[in-house]
Amino acid sequence: MWITEFSMETKASEAKMWQVLTDVENWKEWIGGIKSSTIHGNFENGALVTVENISMPNMKNCLKDVVVNKSFILRSKLFFCTFDGIHELVNENDVLKIKLGIKISGPFTFIFKHIAGKSAAKSLPIATKKLVELAEK
Fold it and tell me: What is the pTM of this model?
C-alpha cells in the first residue's frame, strides 16, 4: 500500500465545501488533467462516476464511504490495484480543513506508485488550493 495526502485550512463552511466537492460535473475546475466527469445517479455509496482524463485512460469510479458534509472515497480499479481518492473535511476547534489523498493498494502498487503516485503527490496541493478558492468565493 502507498498513500499520500495534503490538507489545508479554509474559511468556507462545511456545507459550502461539501457543495463544491460533490459538484462532479465541475471537478475539472480544480482537478488537473480532467476533461470531464459525470455522476450516474445521486451522490451516494455505490454511485458510478465516469472521469474523462486528458492524458490517462478514462476511469470508471465508484463512490464509497460517503458521509454527507464529512468525507467520501472515489474508488477505481486498474490492473489488480485499487486507487482511492480520499476527500475529507475535518473540523478541529472551529477550524475547517480539507484533506485530499491518494491511496494505491494491490500487487502492482510499486509500479503505479512511480507512474501515477509522483504526479498525484505534486498535484494534490494544487487541487486543494483551487478547491479552497472555489469554496471561498
Answer: 0.89
